[in-house]
Structures are given as C-alpha cells and as structure tokens.
Amino acid sequence: MDPKASRDLTSLRPGISHYSRLPVRQLENVKGELLKLKNKEIAVCQTWHNVARTEEQRNSRLSDMAQREQERRAEETEEQRNRRLAVMGQRSQQKRAEETEEQ
Question: Is residue 12 a part of any domain in this protein?
Fold first, then answer.
C-alpha cells in the first residue's frame, strides 16, 4: 500500500470503494452536513405531522358541531322550527332593505 495514502483514510472499509478515500476532516465535514440535512428533514416532517394533526382536530370539531346541530334540530318542535324560519326570513328582508337603501 502507498505510504502516502496511509496518512489519509488508509484502510478500505467494507463496502467502500477505493475511490471514496477522503481525508478524515473531509469525511467529518460530510457527516456534519448530512446530520444537518437529516435534522432539517426531521423538523419538516414534525411540522407537517402537526399540521395534519391540527387538521384532524379541526375536522373532528366541525363534525361534532354538525352532529350536535343535527341532534338539536331533531329535538326541535314544529313551533320552534317555524319561529326559527320566521326569524331567518325577517333577517333576510332587513338585509335586502339595507342593501336597497345603500344603492
């Protein structure tokens, strides 16, 4: 073996070709860069995981709200329903009147 090569990364490691012989400092730099990239990737994955979890929680809340509204309406009497619809109609008329006044 060339004695000059023994000062760098001398021994061939299993699975590494002779073309990948680099000085130890360069290998450490490469390892450091790979570690930084890995940490960034982990952070990005955690962020997306949090986004997905937040979306799931939001969807769950909306589903719960819709379910409660559906149950409330199922318990609503005919009189309550008519009153609710009448209020909606009055609000609609008021809104149309206000829009007409603005024009």
Answer: no
